[in-house]
TrEMBL record:
(2R)-3-phosphoglycerate binds at R36, R119, R160. CDD domains: Phosphoglycerate_kinase. It catalyses: (2R)-3-phosphoglycerate + ATP = (2R)-3-phospho-glyceroyl phosphate + ADP. It comes from Lentilactobacillus kisonensis DSM 19906 = JCM 15041. This is Phosphoglycerate kinase. Its main location: cytoplasm. PANTHER family: PHOSPHOGLYCERATE KINASE (PTHR11406), PHOSPHOGLYCERATE KINASE 1, CHLOROPLASTIC-RELATED (PTHR11406:SF23). One of its GO terms (cellular component) is cell surface. Keywords: ATP-binding, Cytoplasm, Glycolysis, Kinase, Nucleotide-binding, Transferase. It holds the Pfam family PGK.
């Protein structure tokens, strides 16, 4: 169903509360990768260009005790945002109260304010009360009272029901005020939603990563929807075990062999497994390694798919119109076992006729690190959230946005 978006709102002179995802890595007050701040810019700029008053909020890290707050202030983010926008950002070092309300009352049209880490509310008077992450309705109500409109642009937390996304949205509904998706959220819903619910066919899913157990929900859902499912990465070898192929010392989840068996039965020739692998003497980049087809001998562990598998996968992928990829094909963190992931990524980049989508925390990191992300259609900004989307679940943060 189409969601209300920021471009549907009348923003001029309005107090526009925006939930963004500024959960960036910060060490000793210095921001590492500022991708998430950059990703929020289009919606923020749009609100400012349309003379709204942008009141931003976000969580940062996890606050479980008073002491955690020190290293988790959003102040450095306000400074970085100010540089990126090339205009002042009012930073309010609290999450509620007079100081915040006064600062908002003084805002000019087209100005921007960021208040402190919403998860500061998880610890009150030294007690871990989870007002934010437990979605205390009073807190959502309070934040909603600060604004005329609410925009949720934090896809990364859409799978969680917190006060700063769901709580605010519910209180806005109660008060008859609009709740819209930001551009980033809109894009995620558009690409992931289309792929899962209304894909151009053939629709091929590539599933890899470490464990079958993490991905059962995704496999189950996509088994119904995709035309082919390519399996790679560490979970391959649990499927090997289910088929009676020897796996040597490769990663295996013994208690999931039966699940793998039933997936194989249900999927039939929809499921494509790698036929060869890079096997190594130990879990190390410098270990002796070689390519083997089929059975893997004891004393060897598979850490990547082999070159023949890459070709076979390419053959399945070449006619695809929609590709969803979650989970690296091997231990891409080690250069000697990154080839499978790299080559699959490169090939996807050549499919000019297909919509190619990557979801998942490590998968996103992998395509970026290996330099293949630019040519793909959509790299999801939410790890856990994109997985839950691929599982076909309703994400509470999205459900709470108004339909058009
Ligand atoms: P995502 O976060 O994208 O959902 P996962 O967390 O499921 O992905 O999987 C990523 C991890 O899987 C990586 O750290 C990678 O090293 C590991 N992995 C991939 N292939 C293998 C393998 N053959 N053996 C062990 N680990 C693997
Ligand atoms: Mg992961």
């Amino acid at each position: 169903m189409a969601k209300l978006t920021v471009s549907d709102l009348d923003l001029e002179r309005k107090k526009v509360l925006m939930r963004v995802d500024f959960n960036v890595p910060i060490k000793d007050g210095v921001i590492g990768d500022d991708n998430r701040i950059q990703a929020a810019l289009p919606t923020i700029k749009y609100v400012l260009d349309h003379k709204g008053k942008a009141i931003l909020c976000s969580h940062l890290g996890r606050v479980k005790k008073e002491d955690d707050k020190k290293g988790l202030s959003l102040r450095p983010v306000a400074e970085r945002l100010s540089n990126l926008l090339n205009k002042p950002v009012i930073f309010v070092p609290v999450t509620e109260g007079q100081q915040l309300e006064d600062a908002i009352a003084k805002m000019d049209d087209g100005s921007v304010l960021l208040f402190e880490n919403t998860r500061y509310e998880d610890v009150v008077n030294g007690e871990y009360v989870k007002r934010e992450s437990g979605n205390d309705p009073k807190l959502g109500e309070y934040w909603a009272s600060l604004a005329d409109e609410f925009i949720n642009d934090a896809f990364g937390t859409a799978h969680r029901s917190h006060a700063s996304n769901v709580g605010i949205a519910e209180a806005m509904h109660q008060a008859g005020k609009p709740v819209a998706a930001g551009f980033l959220m809109e894009k995620e819903i558009q690409f992931l939603g289309e792929a899962v619910n209304n894909p151009k066919r053939p629709f091929v899913a590539i599933l890899g990563g470490a464990k079958v157990s993490d991905k059962i929900g995704v496999i189950d859902n996509l088994l119904e929807k995709a035309d082919k499912i390519i399996i790679g990465g560490g979970m391959t070898y649990t499927f090997y075990a289910a088929k009676g192929i020897k796996i040597g010392d490769s990663l295996v989840e013994k208690d999931k062999v039966d699940v793998a068996k039933s997936i194989l039965e249900k999927g039939g020739d929809k499921i494509v497994l790698p036929s060869d692998n890079i096997v190594a003497k130990s879990y190390s980049n410098d270990a002796e390694h070689k390519v083997v087809e089929g059975d893997i001998d004891d004393g060897w562990m598979a850490l990547d798919i082999g070159p023949k598998s890459v070709q076979e996968f390419e053959d399945v992928l070449k006619d695809a119109k929609t590709v969803v990829w979650n989970g690296p094909m091997g231990v891409f963190e080690m250069p000697n076992y990154a080839q499978g992931t790299l080559n699959v990524g490169k090939f996807l980049g050549t499919l000019s006729d297909a919509t190619t989508i990557v979801g998942g925390g490590d998968s996103t990191a992998a395509v970026k690190q290996l330099g293949v992300s630019e040519k793909l259609t959509h790299i999801s900004t939410g790890g856990g959230a994109s997985l839950q989307y691929l599982e076909g679940k309703t994400l509470p943060g999205i459900a709470a946005i108004d339909n058009k």
